[in-house]
Design goal:
Elements lengths: L1 E6 L9 E9 L5 E6 L2 E2 L4 E3 L4 E3 L3 E2 L2 E6 L7 E4 L4 E7 L14 H11 L3 H15 L15 E7 L4 E7 L2 E6 L3 E4 L10 E2 L3 H7 L11 H5 L2 H6 L2 H13 L7 H8 L31 E10 L6 E4 L11 E3 L20 H13 L2 H28 L4 H25 L5
Helix pairs in contact: 1-2, 8-10, 9-10
């Protein structure tokens, strides 16, 4: 389960584009933050998660948040301010389960590495989908977890939604505010893959007489309903709409930190699939938010990529990173077992808090909130002053150091407690 939203410049406080996403995966599937530099490529092909495809001559710089063991990414931003996030969607199209296709995360990263604009990314992603399909397992330990994908794609000028079912797809241009969740949501197609209607008619998913709806024709009812995707999509959309014209990075962070129950009475054991900040509770609610991102995409300045690099946004601090800087290049990448990476250090603290969430969260909530406020206010000043990349890199390094210091201090304080 995941949630992704975008607010275009006509809806934001700074007249920039704001893009936000929670990545919901299996608990303890560490999410890595990765900086990939621009590269000239001489090899004829390249390896994705399960298959090789032809390589291009040049790939662009990207900042990615990705499951540690996969090639593809859940979300990211490239040097041009192109931002993409994906969602699992559940459709009537069956899988062969031969692992011969691309994962949604592969398609996302390929577009970030190869495209400059949202429109170009739509064309690239749908071409890759039609050519290779998405017959590929998307799970971690759950090797039976297969799903199709939807994507929210934005640049500093515009945004698009692409929804897929097998090799068929539909896309829709965003007008102001849009969110996507784990469901097909597009009825009327602005762009539609060739054969999508014929395929739906052949399987009797569409009678050919009523106006064609991609959502109605291709949605799987059971998994879409159980995931409460419509509820989460309505929640993120309405929260953003209430602040239309005033949406900023802080507002997006707040939306990504919300639960299915208001904060004072919430505890992780009461979470369900209607929670935006997801906490896994078992078979009917197996996903947990393992990483979160808010990106501010500007036409006249550097793009800011706010990433937690940790699970549970409600317990996390978003750290600012900037394309063209090197803060992430030496970051310790998490592996399968607890280590010294940011993700695993935070996970130990988060696990302790969740055993008595209401009381233990409040112990460090004031410090967490103040740290986030400091980062947001300092970033605003630096951007207004048109700070150099070296100054932005220094700021980013300082923010990351302060978060690590807070986590280590609290981890040391609770050492030995259960």
């Amino acid at each position: 389960m995941c949630d992704t939203l975008v607010a275009l410049s006509n809806s934001t406080a700074n007249r920039s584009v704001l893009f936000a996403k929670n990545s919901d995966r299996e608990p303890y599937e560490a999410q890595a933050l990765l900086h990939v530099g621009r590269q000239s490529c001489s090899e004829p092909d390249m390896a994705c998660t399960y298959r090789r495809i032809p390589q291009v001559a040049e790939t662009y710089e990207c900042i990615l948040s990705k499951p540690f063991q996969m090639w593809g990414a859940e979300m990211g931003v490239n040097e041009w301010g192109l931002a993409i996030g994906n969602e699992a969607v559940f459709t009537k199209v069956k899988f062969d389960k031969q692992q011969v296709g691309l994962t949604g995360m592969d398609i996302l990263r390929l577009a970030l590495e190869r495209c400059r604009t949202a429109d170009e990314a739509v064309n690239t992603m749908t071409s890759l989908l039609e050519m290779y399909g998405q017959d590929a397992c998307g799970g971690y330990r759950n090797r039976k977890f297969y799903y199709h994908n939807s994507f929210l794609i934005a640049d500093p000028s515009e945004a698009w939604v692409v929804e897929t079912a097998g090799r068929t797809w539909v896309s829709e241009k965003v007008k102001d505010i849009r969110s996507i969740s784990n469901r097909l949501s597009i009825d009327t197609a602005e762009r539609l893959s060739e054969g999508a209607k014929a395929n739906a008619s052949r399987h009797r998913w569409w009678n050919g007489r009523e106006p064609f709806s991609f959502r109605k024709s291709y949605s799987d009812w059971l998994y879409t309903t159980a995931g409460r995707a419509a509820s989460r999509q309505a929640k993120t959309t309405s929260a953003c709409k209430r602040q239309e014209g005033k949406v900023d990075a802080a507002a997006c962070m707040n939306i990504l930190q919300t639960h299915n129950i208001d904060h004072p009475s919430f505890q992780p054991s009461r979470a369900n699939t209607g929670s935006v900040c997801m906490h896994a509770t078992g078979l009917l609610n197996p996903s947990q938010t393992t990483g979160s991102m808010v990106a501010e995409l500007r036409t006249d300045g550097p793009h800011t990529v706010w990433l937690t690099g940790t699970s549970m946004p409600c317990l996390s601090v978003y750290v600012p990173y900037f394309p063209g800087t090197a803060t992430l290049k030496n970051m310790i990448q998490p592996l399968a077992e607890p280590d010294e990476s940011l993700w695993w250090q935070a996970e130990k603290l988060h696990g302790w808090i969740c055993k008595d969430y209401r009381s233990r969260r409040m112990l460090f909530e004031e410090q967490r909130v103040q740290l986030q406020r400091d980062f947001l206010e300092s970033e605003k000043i630096l951007i207004a002053r048109k700070a150099s990349l070296s100054n932005l890199e220094q700021f980013s390094n300082e923010c990351l150091s302060r978060v690590l210091m807070m986590i280590r201090r609290w981890s040391s304080a609770i050492s030995g407690e259960k």
